[in-house]
Design a protein that fits this description.
Blueprint lengths: L7 E6 L14 H15 L4 E6 L7 H6 L4 H25 L4 E5 L8 E2 L2 H9 L3 E5 L9 H12 L3 E6 L4 E2 L11 E2 L1 E2 L1 H6 L7 H9 L4 E5 L5 H6 L6 E3 L1
Parallel strand pairs: 1-2, 1-6, 2-5, 3-4, 3-5, 6-10, 9-11
Antiparallel strand pairs: 7-8, 10-11
């Protein structure tokens, strides 16, 4: 059996990752494919925490730009991440993966409140933990929530699944001549203002020496290849 090089991983997925070809909401086929990729990684014995965005349903920053109160918008975005977490949990459990959703905002009828020690215990028992509702505070992105949870659970690496192959010097969708970086440092992200994740998340990972890999989630088996040590995407270290 192939042996993974990481024991505990934090996977960050944007809400848009669940869209597929839809303009809004959740595409069941896409969620099922993501769950299948995760199931393959779980079969290798990897302890996995997941943070989901909510941009496929609601984005607080966009609503704020259109005149909505930023705090209200951010809380609505946090609720969107809970919807995504419950959807992913449903599909993961169809693959026989024991899953817990923990939320930064209490809603006991739907999920557990986030308790660090309990989350770690779940991981040790082989359960996958989905962390929802961001940090529970407005003005912080789900990237920051992912970095924070990675630190709290003692993850060895943060994996950010995107629609592109890695980090580029420009938007590869708009600029076909954009060049992809194979390696970067956390400081590069801050100094070059690269849009891979916000400054707070990058700083948190830098301070706690957590490497980041940005990779294409839609490329089949990429997640499995990464945990087995293959060089995929952009490594930030």
């Amino acid at each position: 059996m192939e042996k993974p090089i990481y024991k505990r991983v934090l996977l960050k997925l944007s809400g848009e990752a669940l869209l597929g070809e839809r303009g809004l909401g959740i595409d069941p086929e896409v969620v099922n494919r993501i769950a299948e990729e995760i199931a393959v990684v779980k079969a290798l014995g990897v302890e996995l925490g997941i943070v989901l965005g909510g941009g496929n349903i609601f984005r607080g920053i966009s609503a704020s730009a259109r005149g909505m109160d930023r705090v209200s918008g951010d809380y609505m975005g946090m609720l969107a991440t809970v919807i995504n977490a419950l959807a992913l949990q449903d599909y993961l459990e169809r693959y026989g993966i024991d899953t817990r959703v923990q939320t930064a905002i209490k809603m006991e009828e739907l999920a557990e409140p986030f308790i660090r020690r309990r989350a770690i215990r779940h991981l040790e028992k082989g359960r996958t933990v989905i962390f929802a509702a961001g940090t529970g505070n407005p003005y912080f992105t789900t990237d920051t929530a992912a970095a924070l949870r990675a630190v709290e659970i003692g993850a060895e690496i943060l994996l950010k699944g995107t629609k592109v192959d890695g980090v580029y010097d420009a938007d590869p969708v708009k600029n076909p001549k954009a060049v992809m970086f194979k390696k970067l440092t956390h400081t590069d992200i801050l100094q070059k203002n690269l849009k891979v994740m916000d400054a707070t998340a990058a700083s948190l990972c830098r301070e706690n020496k957590i490497p980041i890999i940005v990779f294409n989630l839609y490329q089949e088996n990429n997640l499995r290849k990464i945990v087995l040590g293959k060089k995929i995407g952009t490594m930030v270290n």
